[in-house]
Specification:
The protein is α/β, with parallel strands linked by helices. It folds into two domains: about 130 residues, PhyR, sigma-like (SL) domain (Butyryl-CoA Dehydrogenase, subunit A, domain 3); about 120 residues, Rossmann fold, CATH 3.40.50.2300. About 50% of the residues lie in helices and about 10% in strands. β1, α8 and β2 form a beta-alpha-beta unit. α2 crosses α3, α5 packs antiparallel against α6 and α5 runs antiparallel to α11. The C terminus is likely disordered.
């Protein structure tokens, strides 16, 4: 397999990581694009690491830390489109946390990406944990037809300090649940119990109010295609508890100022 094809295999996951860090798909894709331009111009930047994936993420991290995020000046003086100024989460702890919890790197590999030693990485993750713990709690709707998975998600959500408004097993149940209480976050499976679509249910809900959505699927590659629109937040089944914690916290952090449509009267 050529080097370019090998790098391409990691792009969907790098784009996911970029979105989580940057807060929007346009900004995340701009960082990924800058990374690819750097690699194309100087392939040797990927050398000297334990794996191609580590090398790719290390180049991305250098670029992300050099532009105007969290008050860091962009050397070109031109902020990237859609870039978010993150006022609460410190950039380095957030990177360390996401590399472990979202991207599944080992401590050694994550430390290599950030060019620190493992004790320093652990300190960054500890800092991230303290900052994530300060996030504002919200109410969460779960759209999931598997009882055990729904139970696990409820437990994780409540452990994080949020309240679950209910669990919907079908499109119709999701719509009915929203009429009783608008959630501040939705966790949605794709294929539901009666053959209905979690995507269709979410699209209908979003016509009534704005809320961050995390999709849960056993086939993430079907959604991380590089084509738009696609989910901003995605969890692959089977999921790790740390992944759920990371993605929930990120979704709420980036969408905390999202505008809500006026509440309708329950019918």
């Amino acid at each position: 397999m050529s080097a370019s094809r090998s790098v391409a295999a990691y792009l969907p996951f790098l784009r996911r990581y970029a979105r989580a860090l940057s807060g929007s798909q346009p900004a995340g894709d701009a960082y990924v694009g800058a990374t690819l331009e750097t690699v194309a111009a100087e392939p040797a930047v990927l050398d000297g690491t334990s794996s191609l994936r580590v090398g790719l993420y290390r180049v991305f991290s250098k670029i992300w830390n050099s532009v105007s995020v969290n008050g860091i000046a962009d050397p070109s003086g031109k902020p990237l489109p859609g870039e978010m100024r993150l006022s609460k989460m410190s950039p380095r702890p957030r990177q360390a946390f996401l590399l472990i919890a979202l991207e599944g790197f080992s401590e050694a590999a994550a430390a290599e990406v950030l060019e620190v030693d493992v004790p320093a990485l652990r300190q960054l993750i500890e800092e991230a944990g303290h900052e994530l713990a300060s996030e504002i709690a919200t109410e969460v709707m779960i759209i999931e037809d598997e009882p055990l998975i729904a139970m696990d998600l409820r437990g994780l959500i409540e452990k994080l300090g949020h309240k679950v408004t209910g669990v919907a097993r079908t499109h119709a149940e999701a719509i009915a649940l929203s009429k009783a209480k608008y959630p501040g976050l939705i966790l949605a499976d794709i294929q539901l119990a009666d053959g209905s679509s979690g995507l269709d249910a979410v699209n209908e809900l979003l016509r009534a109010f704005e809320v961050p959505v995390i999709f849960i699927t056993a086939y993430p590659e079907r959604f991380l295609t590089g084509e738009r629109p696609e989910p901003a937040f995605l969890i692959a089944k089977p999921f790790e508890p740390g992944t759920v914690s990371a993605v929930v916290s990120q979704a709420l952090f980036f969408e905390r100022n999202a505008r809500r449509a006026p509440r309708r009267a329950a019918s």
